[in-house]
Design a protein that fits this description.
alpha/beta; P-loop_NTPase; binds magnesium ion; 7-stranded parallel sheet; binds adenosine-5'-diphosphate
Length: about 230
């Protein structure tokens, strides 16, 4: 992967000046690792924990975040806004946002190879990049090259171990394998039944009192908050 995508020119900075506070990119070349789940959880955690005005931008044609948002009981929960767009035209999606946001969380499709140019522009325009991954060898193998590419663009990036089993041997091995390629979020999100159950009602574990994984999701957000310099 690192060889396939074109490297940025030295000093190239396409970071937007102005309206939008910070941009967080959630990306992985592997499907089903929790990109959409992490986008939703992090957006809500930023709004609940830090009182930020947050939007999610869904650039995946499968529209996992848009579908979740359509079920969200917005009179009962903290507000986050939702936008969608085509990855190749993400700049237009930002230009069309009708409000100012402290944070925009960007969910992306798995197909990074099909969108090399747009992915590079996205990476260069974001303040932090989070790469969710599972803990098994095939997961970590596919994300480490991607991390190397993202970091070669000068991005501030970290891995997130998601849907994991922290007491297992493969979890401990995954931590070391990932750290060889880049930083790892110090808080992981285990495999929690509450996460998909609440998602099917347009919610996250942060929206509901007393959820076991709420501290984990907030921990991930606090790591990203530090990364982005809020
Ligand atoms: N920490 C977790 N615990 C349990 N289930 C999870 C967790 N993270 C994601 N999932 C579930 O895994 C599936 C894939 O997640 P998703 O966010 O759609 O992945 P991606 O966007 O990378 O394709 C979904 O059914 C989601 O509810
Ligand atoms: Mg998704």
């Amino acid at each position: 992967m690192a060889d396939v995508l074109e490297k940025p020119r030295k000093g190239e900075d396409v970071r937007p000046k102005g309206r939008i506070g910070r941009r967080l990119l959630i990306t992985s070349p592997k499907g089903g690792v929790g990109k959409s789940t992490t986008s939703r959880n992090t957006a809500v955690a930023a709004a609940v924990e830090s009182g930020l005005k947050v939007a999610i931008l869904d650039l995946d044609p499968q529209r996992g975040c848009v579908k979740w948002f359509a079920m969200r009981p917005d009179d009962k929960v903290v507000a986050v806004d939702m936008y969608d767009g085509a990855i190749e035209k993400f700049e237009d999606a930002f230009a069309e946002m009708d409000e100012d946001y402290d944070l925009v969380v960007i969910d992306t499709p798995t197909s990074v190879e099909e969108h090399k140019g747009a992915m590079k522009r996205l990476i260069l325009s974001c303040d932090a990049v989070l790469i969710p991954t599972g803990q098994h060898w095939d997961d970590t193998k596919s994300v480490t090259d991607w991390m190397r590419y993202v970091r070669s663009c000068g991005a501030r990036a970290s891995f997130l171990l998601n849907r994991c089993k922290p007491r297992t041997k493969s979890f401990k091995e995954a931590r070391v394998a990932l750290l060889k390629a880049g930083p790892l979020c110090p808080v992981e999100v285990p495999d929690r039944e509450d996460i998909p159950t609440l998602a099917s009602a347009g919610l996250t574990v942060v929206d509901v009192n007393g959820m076991k994984s709420s501290d984990e999701v907030i921990g991930v957000w606090l790591h990203l908050k530090n990364e982005m310099g809020f």
